[in-house]
Each structure stands twice: as C-alpha cells, then as structure tokens.
Design a protein that fits this description.
This protein has 265 residues and is an alpha/beta fold. The protein contains eight helices and 13 strands.
Length: 265
C-alpha cells in the first residue's frame, strides 16, 4: 500500500502490534536498538497491514497506550523463553533467554487474549502464546524426546529450507485458510509445546508427533504455527494466504481497546 492508496481510500490497513527485541551491536550508537526482522514487516506490508513495533520497555502504562492502538497481535520468533514462566527449572539444552522481552510479550499476549484481538503467533510466538495460556514447553526437544526428528535446521540451512511436512487437522481454521492438509515447512526451532495451554487446540503435527500448529476456540481468531511462514510467502501462496487472512480479520475486528481491569493498572 502506497501513500496514494491511503489518500484515495481515506484510511490505511489494520495496525498490527509486533513486539520487538533488543539488538546489540558495536555498529549501533549506544550498542542497543529495538528490532524486528524485516521478513515479518514485509509480510505484513504485503498483506496491507501497518506494523507497529512494540519496544521492550518495563512500563505497563506505556505498553497499555501502545496496545490501545492495535487491531491484532503478531508474535514473532526468537530465543528461548525463561522456564520460570511455566514453573520449571532450566534443564540441559536450554539456550539464551531474554527475560525483559519475555515480560513484554507475555503481558501483551494476555491483554490480546482478554480483549479478543486476533493473534498470529510464529515459532517462539506459538510458545509465548502457549505459556501465556498456562501451558509448558519442551526446553530442548532432543533431550526428553531422543527419537524426535531434527527441528533446528538454522543456521546450517537457509531460513526457507523445507525441512519436513506437517499434517493439518481437517476442518481446522488453518486448513481452511491454506486449502490443504499437508504442508512442506521450514523448521528453525529446538523448543516446542509440551502441555497445551487452556483454550488452545492442536491442529497440526510433524511426523514425529510434535505440535506444529494450534488454534483458539472456533469464535476466537488465534493461530500459532511452529514454522516460519514469513520466509515462504514468495514461494508458497498458502503462506501468503495465512497473513492475508490474519490481516482481513483484523480489519473486521477493529480496535477494541483494553479490558477494563487492564486500564485500571
């Protein structure tokens, strides 16, 4: 969407909140910046949405102001969640954690769930969604599940490498959107859902039984996928359809604001 499109239509697309993370580099003045990979931004723009990057900040009040601006929430990939959020101690295989980012993402996810905003959760995002709903994770798939397939193909393979297939449940929202029950997907994760969170339902599995996608109840637009569709939208129209469906429902839902109890914080 160009500025001419906005002027002609009198409005832009839905505003999608995208929690970012701290990126550290000696090339950055001050060494730290707030970042979101461009692959997610491009996928949203291609679907007609307006991305709003939510920074890693400790202020609930500021987060609430940002939350009021959004029509939907996109949870993106990244490092491991601190197992303290699902009442576990770290085990061997746990990798880098980022507690400040965890706090922001879990907070805005719970607000989005309470406000019934549409949610699309990708890779780490599906794990954040599950934990926000009271679920748990395998901290490192290979440790408790030695017979599981390899799932962490990056960085030894490119981000769009199709690592394995997933089987979608017939009749699920995800299957209806992509129009297929069998997808070849990329795989860049070493953690996965163990116990499902309240109100989430598995709708896709990898051949080894790992949960690869979840949805909310039928009247709630919540989809989480363990793969990275943003890297596949140029080569697989089904992945582009997922982003389009998300943005379309955000247009229909509109800005709902914060639940009353959140406003009072």
């Amino acid at each position: 969407m160009t500025m001419d499109d906005v002027s002609a239509n009198g409005a832009s697309g839905p505003v999608i909140g995208v929690p970012g993370y701290w990126h550290e580099s000696e090339a950055i003045l001050g060494n730290i910046s707030t970042a979101v990979p461009d692959s997610y931004i491009r996928a949203l723009l291609k679907s007609g949405a307006v991305p709003l990057i939510i920074p890693v900040i400790p202020s609930t009040k500021v987060l609430a102001q940002l939350f009021r601006m959004i029509d939907g929430l996109l949870l993106i990939g990244g490092p491991d969640l601190d197992p303290v959020h699902y009442h576990q101690q770290p085990v061997r295989g746990l990798r880098k954690i980022t507690p400040p980012r965890d706090a922001v993402e879990i907070q805005v996810t719970r607000w989005a769930l309470e406000a019934d905003l549409p949610i699309l959760a990708i890779c780490r995002g599906i794990q954040v969604l599950n934990v926000a709903e009271g679920g748990t994770l395998w901290q490192d798939i290979a440790s408790p599940l030695p017979d599981a397939e390899k799932h962490d193909y990056y960085p030894d393979h490119p981000e769009d490498f199709l690592a394995h297939n997933v089987k979608l449940h017939a009749g699920s929202r995800l299957a209806r959107i992509v129009g297929d029950a069998d997808l070849a997907v990329n795989s860049l994760h070493h953690q996965a859902i163990d116990r499902l969170g309240v109100g989430l339902f598995p709708v896709a599995h990898s051949p080894d039984g790992i949960i690869e996608a979840v949805e909310g109840a039928a009247n709630r637009w919540i989809i989480g996928v363990q793969w990275h569709p943003e890297w596949l939208i140029e080569t697989d129209s089904r992945m582009a359809a997922l982003f389009h469906a998300f943005c379309e429902v955000c247009i229909d839902r509109g800005k709902t604001g914060l639940p009353t109890q959140v406003v009072r914080q």
